[in-house]
Structures are given as structure tokens and as C-alpha cells.
Amino acid sequence: MRAVTLSALFGVSLWSAFAVCATSAAASPDPSADATFAEHVKVWTTKPEFINPLVDHLPLSTAAPSPREILGHDIGAPRVLDHYADILGYYRALAAKSGRVKIVETGQTEEGRPTVVVLISAEANMARLEENRRNLARLGDPRGLSEAQAQAIVATTKPMYLALGGLHSAETGPPEMLMELAYRLVTEDSPLIQKIRSNVIVAINPASDPDGRDRYTDWYYKNKIDDTNDLDPVPGSPYWGKYIFHDNNRDINYTGYSAQNLLKFYLEWRPPIIHDLHESVPFLYIFSGQPPQNPSLDPILFSELPWFSNFEMAKLKALGMPGVWDHGYVDAWSPGYVAFMSSNHNGLVRFYETFGNGGATTELRHVKPIDGPGQDFHAADQTRREWYRPDPPYETVEWSMRDNTNFMETGLLTALETTATFPQDIVEDFYKKSRNSVEDGRANPPFAFIIPGDQQDMTKAALVVNLLRNQGIEVGRAERQVTLKEGVFPAGSLIVKRDQPYGRLAKILLETQTFPDPKLRTYDDSAWTMGLMAHVKVIATADPTALDLPVKPVDRYVAEGRIAPEGAGAYAVLDNGSINLATLRYGLTDVAIRVVEQGFSAQGVAVPKGSFIVAGTNYARLKGAVAGLGLTVVALPSKVEVSTHPAALPRLAIYSTWGATQNVGWVRYAFDQFKAPFDLIFKDELLKGDLRRKWDVIVLPSQGRTSKAFVFDIPVRGKPLPYEKSATFKFLGDYGSSPDIRGGMGLKGLELLRQFVAEGGTLITLGDTSAVPGEFGLAPDVEVSRPSKDFYAPGPIVSAEIAAPDNPLFYGYQERTMPVRWATNALFSVAARDKRLVLMSFPGGAKGVQSGLMNGADEVKDRPAIIDEPVGEGRILMFATNPVYRWQNFGEFRMLFNALFNYPQLELGVSGSLGDRAQPSASHAVSAR
Ligand SMILES: [Zn+2]
What we know:
Helix content is 31%, strand content 19%. With 929 residues, the protein is of the alpha+beta class. The model is unreliable at 1-26 and 913-929 (pLDDT under 50).
């Protein structure tokens, strides 16, 4: 049993206990100060150097309710977290009483919670909020403004500083702290706060994942509140919001509703600064934009970042606070983090990491990592002195929610001090970055990006165009044929000109990523090139005449579909590679659909393999289901001999561990978008067995750090961890439930999966999980090894080569080589005699890297990218790629849907003997009425 100190039990440090006595003896003489608050803060702060005069007090006010009046506790109270409705309730109470507060409703979450941004400023600023909004919008799009006009607007415009809290739900402090900050900004009359109120519009997003806030708060009270062992902590809740967990800060295409709502708010209000508040790093890390930096962003941004962070470091150090540092943690390469919304749109991205305990329980934290092999740079010792960390965090520390609140609030107040001291500089910077973006597009290639209008599948082009439009990027449609240096493009081509306010963002999203230095590391993906990810042709043009092309602005782009008139005996829905074919299949579950196995020509129209054939008797159903999908349906002549097989509708289960639901969430999201039904199953359902009777296909999405973690999941230690709905905890038990989420499927589960396959089931594994069948022997002919320690591949986009082009997996793919996102650190191999099992492989080498960074690309040479191994009566299809990676690699999605609709025919087009296994496909004549 481990030792538990009294202070850990009560959330009170010995220092604080003494301090309370001292304070009581010399009571505050200021009658306008909230003495109860001051006392609480002293008690809850664990060391004297963790508090300072900026945040050790709050005024008593009759003009606005304090958090304690509404919530029943001061902020930073041990063992207390607020649910979202209570947080919102506090801001609404504040807005109801104070003319300094306005709430902007921005929409709803997936689970129906309202999303808001709270605006706080002096009454005079609030009175001209709309004018200020228009000014920022004008400066954000300065086309047509003279320099003098722009400067006149700058001089009368207040910067808006938007703070986000609680994007990551386990990082529980910011949503609490922001309520106290709001109250302080509304009620305190210190010179600093008055200056902030006068010169800045402070905007607060109270909890950036409201659904997750409630789920995590319930989890904390149910399972975590008594946990004080940071060396073996009780795990967090299996879900935050509905789908994507921690990746809500990697959601480059804004799938989450609260992110979408925030983006809409951003494009309406254009705050020059967004500051995202996270927790994980001791004691306060301030993002300063370290390398690798995205060179397409404005140099002004990279000057603003250390300007802010250095002042905050200096100020907090002057206030006596230790462990504040910048640099050395997160770089400025990927534009996919939520707060990058700001820098992507010519604003300033900021973010903090403060130290958090995953809840409000005070505990002894071991900050210095235990030395051992296998540590990567992320786990580097943050208690070590560095040039950017002159006063490092302590090796161990008693840490409380109030400590966390003090650091964050002091930092943010200091950031607001900078903003309030230089309000016009900040607004001017915002204007200049916006202006520079337009000018850069005019002066430097690429001048535009062309999305040719004659691509086989325009539905994926529509995905790309509409994602650009969501971000406020202007896209035009050429009404006539376009001739540029790079070629001739047909009428209907889409043109993204760079001489627009968000021309930089268009460049960042559409260009190929050239990593600046292979010795550098990056925090997330090194590549995201949208055209490569979506398999959409995008041409960067160095022809300046592109800027003068007449275009018609596109609001939303809809790919045109076509259906032949009624009366034919049969119809073919052409497979041009659209993912919408999946939606069509699931929209016609009771209609017999056959899949074309070899392309043919019918009355001059090429019908590619993979096309769906539907009998004319189902015309009305087909016409209804195909509407809006952008697909082409042609009539077939009365007689055509063609090999087909039924488009299968397998009974499908998607298996999820409890400890790593994030990547499963992306697959669930994609399936929901394309209206594809599935059973989401966990260990409890799996371990009931009889799998083959229940399902035809089981998909194991990428999850778990290792194969062992996938199988054994959350270790069976400590107490059971229920994730179930109850009257008290109504936000638990969503998207699966279990009386105890520990233990994983275990070896018994693996044995059941083996049986499932032996009895004819199809097991499909994605990404990292594809190492499981090889490493645990389910796929006897597949070996898995790991790359050398020099191998480093942070999500590059690489080439993959189709080995079996007639295999149904590749229906809809025209090219033998395709770009895929690198998705695992497992390297696969099969014996030479089993080469036929490899359906796709990586050519590897430096030439195989299309975008981003892969150190050690030679290690990938000729490695399998997709392996299909028949086992017993069934098969295991292993994707070393991840065909559904976030909401990004749309070009790969179809391979997974193809695997489902053609699961009994996955041996088609595979050369070489497949033993005595039957070829299930059959020739089928489409005949006339
Ligand atoms: Zn975070």
C-alpha cells in the first residue's frame, strides 16, 4: 500500500494551513474584497510561490454574481468540477446582470448542448460591438482599402482576444478558471483590469467540447475523485464527445459541431487572437512557435508568438512563479489544431499547457520522469534547466486545481495586459497579415490552384471545395475553357486564386509539404495535402494570368449527377470512384444490386468495373436513392453479357477497445456520414462468442499503441471501472457501455476471432491493428517487424502500388499507383511463395514520399500495404494503411467500402493458385424485360 499524506487526502497543504492562521490573525482591511475567496485560495494553493497578487483576491460585487453565488463554490475548490449546464448558467447569470457581458449563441453540439462565446468588455465597447465587428471584418479582408483608410479603421478598433477552455475534456481546469476570469474582468477595478476592459474585447468559449465536459465530469465523480496515485492513475473516461476524443484538436476539416460553430463565429467576428488552454505540461508551457515552422504563414506571426510568450514568462517570474517556459514542446508546422483557425486566417494562434491532475483532486505529482529505455522526446525531462526553461518545474510537487487556476489565470491576465497595452499594434498586425496574404498571392507563385472540372469523380472534388469554402476560402468556377502555362482546363473547372485574404490558407492546405529539416521532429502530421489525401487532381499554377480569369463565385459545390430516363431493362450506376456509391448501396438495402467485375462499353458509354447494375423494375427506387449523390446512371442495352456478382450487405461489427476509442470514432464518423450501418461492439459483446452466427465481417480499426495493448486494453488493476448510465451519471454509458471497461478481449477474444475466421468470417484490420493477426498468429503467413530507431514517419503521404488491379478492393481506382497516408510503424512481410496475398505494396524510398517527412524510407521498400490472407473458411484483410484516417484521406475510403460490398469475392483478380478454395463469383447475364 502506498503512503497517503494528510494533505493529499484533504487537498490542503501544510503551508496553506499555516497561511490560513496568519490571514485570520490579520484580516483584510478592504471591505470590498471577498475575504472568503481570499481564504479559500490560500488554503487551496499548495505553495506560497504558486500564488500572486493578480489572482489572490476577488472583489465583492453587487453588479454581478460571483461564481460562488451561482455555483456554490469558489473556483479551484478541491474535488469539485462543474457540469456544462452549470457553467453556462453562470455566464448567463453574469450576462443578465452586467452590461459588460454579452453571450453570442453559436449553435449546438452533436448531443444538443448549446455552444456560445461570451464577450466581455467595458460598456462603451459593448455599445459599439457591431461596429467593431464590422471593422475587424473589413481589416480581415482589406481588398479595396487604401492604406490611409485601413489605418483610420485600425485606430478605432479594439482587438478581440478569444480564449478557449476544455477542448480536451480531461483537462478540466480551464473551464473553471475562465468563469473566475470573467467575473474578475467584469467586477474588478484595478488599473490592469480597467485597462483590459477599456482596450480589449475578451471572448470566452466556456468549454470547447461541451458534450465531453459533461461526460468527463460524470466519470470523475464516479471513478476518479479519490484517485491520488499519479504513477498509476485511474484512466480517464473512454469517450469525451461523440466521436473523436483528443483528435478534436487534430480536426483539420472541422467535423465536430462545436469546432464548426466556433469557425462560423470566427469568420463572423474575426478575433485577431485565439488562445487555447490545455493541461498536461508542468507548470505552465507557453507556445512560442518553435521550428519546424510553416513558412507559408506570415513572418509577423512568428514574431508575435515569442513577443507574447517572453513577456508572460518574464512577468510570471517577476511574480515569483516557477516552472514557466516556452519553446521546446510544440512546433508550428501542422495547421490542424483548433486554435490554428486563427493563424490560418491571418490572426495569432496561442496556446498554454498548464499542469493538471485530470480532475480537481489534489495530489503529489512526480514531475521528473523515471529514467528508462524507450523514452521519446515527448517524455523528455521537463524538470531540466534549458535556455528556454531557466527556472524549471520541481521534480515532485503537491498540485491542486487552484495551483493550476493560478498559473493559467495569471498567464492569461498577462497576455491580456500585452493586448491592452498594444491594442492598435495587434489590430494593425492583423490587418497587415491579411493584406500580406492578398499581396503574396499577387506577387508569388503559385498564383492559383486549379481543380479541373473533367475529373472522373467530381464528388470527391466537391468534398475538397466545400471544406475550403467552410474555412472562408473563395473558390470560383470557370465558365469557359481555361488556358494556362500548365495546360488547358475545361469549363467548369474550379479556381482558387491566391490574391485573397485566405490565399495563404489555400496554399497551406493544397500545396505539397516539404519538411524543412529532417532532423526536426513535429508534434503531429508532417503532411495533409488535400488533393493527395482526397485523390483529387489539384494543379498549382505559376501562371499569373490565372489571377485575371473570370470566374463565378462558388458558395457550395455540388457534383452533378445524371440518370437516364425510365424504360430500360437495366441501369448501370457508373463507378467513377465516388464514396457516395456506399451511400447508394445502403440506401437500397432491399434492392438487388450486382457489381460489374470487368469494365465494358454499352452504347458508347464506358461502364467501369465496380459499377452497380440495377434492374429497370427498380427505377423509381434507384432514382430516389441516387438523387443528390452526384452519380451517373446510364441505361443498358437489352442484352449485355458481363461478369457480375451481388453487391453484398454484410452484417458488420466494428470492434472497439475501451482504452483507445479515438480512431474507432473516426471510422464511426465516416460510416455515419455515408449512412453505413454497423454494430459497435466491445469486449463484452465479443466475449459472448458465436461471432460467425451474428456477423459476416468484423472490422478492427486502428487502436492501441501496441498489439498487446489492443488485446489486453486497460489493465485489470485497482477497482472495476464501470461506464454505465444511471440516474446520477446520465452522461456515462453512451456509444457503448460496460460494468467494467478493464481487461480487453484477452486471449479468449483472440481465439473467438480466430474461430470467426475459420468458420468463414471476414476480419478486416486497419493501421496499427493490422499487426495483431501477424503478431498473435491469426494470420500464419504474415510476419511483422518494427523499423529501426532512425525511422521517423510522422504521417507523410506516400505512394502505394496496386498489385492486383482487378481485385474488387480497387473498384473505382483508375491508377495503379495512388497516394496513401502512412499509418503504422509496423512493417509487414510475407514469404516469397505467398506474394499473391499482397494486394498493394509500398515502393518506398525517397521517391515514394509524395508529401511530408519519412526518415528511413528505404526500410519501407516493397513492403506490403494491403495483405489478404485466406484462413480456414474465411479471411483476414490487413490494411497497413488506414483507409479511414481522420476526416482526411477520402481517396482511400472506398477501399474499405469495396471490401464490404465484395467481401465474398476478395480473391477475384488475384493471380496464382489459391488452393482448393472456391471462387465465389459467377457470370451473370443482364437481360431485357
Ligand atoms: Zn490538450
